[in-house]
Predict the structure of Purine nucleosidase.
Amino acid sequence: MKRILLDCDPGIDDALAIALAHGSPELEVVGITTVAGNVGLERTTPNALSLTEFYGMDVPVARGADRPLLRAPDTASTVHGATGLGDVVLPTAKAEPDTRHAVDFIIDTVAASPGEISLVAVGPLTNVALALRKEPRLAEWVREFVVMGGSYTRGNLTPAAEFNIGADPEAAGVVFDAPWEPVMFGLDLTHQARATSEVRQRFVGLGKLQEELLSPCLDFYGSNRQYRDEGPAIHDACAVAHVIAPELFTTVRARVDVETSGRFTSGMTVTDFAPEAEHNALVATALQQRAFWDLLTEAFERVASSMP
Ligand code: BDR
Ligand code: CA
C-alpha cells in the first residue's frame, strides 16, 4: 500500500481527488494540507475538514500558506464558486486543523518515513516551495512527487499559464528547480479526463455521495464556459490516479522551466521534450480514459458504501 500526502485547495476537482484517494485500497491517506488557491485559505481549510468528515475519513488536515510567496492572491471562484464547492454546503466539521503549519506537517511526515510518502500537490505550490526551502532534503526523502499544474500548450488562467502555476509562479519555480523529478499533470493531460454525461451516468446510485456532492458539484463546475461542450476536466484526480495506477498514463521526460518574469507569459511551464534537453520532470501526455473512469467509479462506490 502506498502512503499519500495531498496538498490541495478544495476546490471541486480537489474534492473528487480526495474521494479517489480515500476510496482506493492501494492508498493510505496520511494527511491533507491546504493552501490558498481556488478560494482563500479561510475556505479551503474548512472545505478539506468538512469533506473528510463527509467521506468518513480519519486523517489530519493541516492549514498552510494563505497567499503566494510574492504575489497578490488570485482565486478561481468563477470556476469553483465563492465557497470553493459550487452550491454545495457541507456541515461544518467537528474536527480542528492539525496544530502544525502545513509546511511543518509535510516535512515531519516525509522525514518520519523516508522513501515512503507520495507527495501529491494539486493547488498552487506555495506550501511545497516553503517546505523545500525549510528542509531541502524533502526532495530526496519523498517516494515520488506528483503535481497537477502547468501545460505544454496553453493555459487556463491566461493563454500561457495554468492556474496552479500562474497563481504562484515563484513557488513553482522553486519546486521545478529542486533536485527531484516531478511528475507533471498539465492541462494537456487533464483535459482528457472529462466528466461527460456518460461518465456521470456511472455515478447514479451512489446515494448521498452522488446526490449531495458529485451531482451538484459537477453541475456547477460543468456550467463554466470552458467546460460546457465536453464536460468538466477533473484535473486533480489525474495526479492521484497516477500514484495508484501509473500504467494508465503515458509520460515523457522533459525539461520544465517556469516563467516568472514574462509580461504575457508569467506562470508558463516552458517544456522542452528534446532528447538533449536537461530533463528535470516526467510530463504526462496521454490517458487511458476508460480505465481511468473505472478507477474513479470503483473508488467512489467504496466511499459511498462506507460514508457515515
Ligand atoms: C487546477 O486549478 C484549479 O482550479 C483546479 O482545482 C486544478 O487544481 C486546474 O487548472
Ligand atoms: Ca486544485
